[in-house]
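note to self: dont lose this again. the chain is below, predicted strucutre after it. 250 aa total, dont forget to put it in the shared folder this time
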Amino acid sequence: MESKIRVTVWNEFRHEKEGGAAQKVYPNGLHAVIKEFLDKNDDMEVRLAALDDPDQGLPDEVLNNTDVLLWWGHCHHWEVNDELVEKVRQRVYREGMGFIPLHSGHHSKPFKAIVGCTGDLEWGDGVKEVVWNLNPSHPIAAGIPKAFELPVEELYSEPFFVPQPDQLVFGSWFEQGNIFRSGICYFRGLGKIFYFQPGHEEFPSFYNEYVQKIITNAVRWAKPVNRVIKDECPYVGTGLFDKTHEENNI
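---
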């Protein structure tokens, strides 16, 4: 029997504790809503992590036992330790951990370090968004219609300062006429990355059935499929490395 996908949902978890609309929409944290719908899948084992948890929610024993890391950040990107960022990057590049930044995660330290970008974009107030399925044959788009509507979501707009995506899955149109590459994939080292735009803390996008389906599909797509890369040369300790150098007077 195939082992379960070990999923960690990381969230700043600050907005929801400050009252206001965020607390009303996600009283237990938006990451709790994500865990709730992911828990419905028998092939997933889901845990929560937050910025104010010990070790910022990702001690080595958690990070090293995570197959797919979902990341939601907004106003406190700068608080994330650079050492932790590097550990996340290494887990993606060298061990194949999947990484799924959501919404304002485009400005998170891990996303910028893994993909190599500023993550800058244009943005505006909450308006109607139509998410278009631009790549219906992609695994992340399975079961998603040609388009679906979010009655209100924070406007994100091009230009989006990221590298050319390896795969473009979804694009969005906002009622003011702006467009945005709202679902994009990257391959870095052994890891797979999927950035997905919906998910403002004051709007109920994470309750939308298609948003939930896309995130669920993305977890399965992003799970590791390859071996760990080791730092050492495979010939060290075999004698072949030294012999070759001796023969060539190196």
